[in-house]
Amino acid sequence: MKTEYLIKETLKGLLATAKEKLCVLGEDDAKEDLKKLREVYEDLVLFWGLDEELIGEFDEKIWILK
């Protein structure tokens, strides 16, 4: 299995986790967790040299961090 595939699947998992935390915890209680998840997401994208537009896609889907 290619590393890039694994990283992209990990990013999907982080995004799914962020969405679920938002639904379960609500905006206020999830905010700190969402910030941490976004930091990890961004770090993976930058470290592995992936398209930085992925970070923007995360921000669009997890809109409360804007």
Helix content: over 70%
| Basic shape | elongated
Radius of gyration: 12 Å
Q: Characterize the largest beta sheet: strand count, sense, and whether it forms a barrel.
A: none
Number of discrete helical segments: 2
The SS-based structural class is: mainly alpha
> Whole-Å distance between the termini?
35 Å
Q: What is the number of E strands?
A: 0
Summarize the helix and strand pattern as letters.
Answer: HH
Mean pLDDT: 94
Q: List segments where confidence is low: pLDDT < 50 over at least 5 consecutive residues.
A: none
Structure, explained:
- The protein is mainly alpha-helical and 66 residues long.
- The chain has one domain.
- Helix 1 crosses helix 2.
- The mean pLDDT is 94.
Summed up:
The chain is mainly alpha-helical and about 70 residues long.
Based on the model shown, name its key terms:
66 residues, mainly alpha, 82% helix
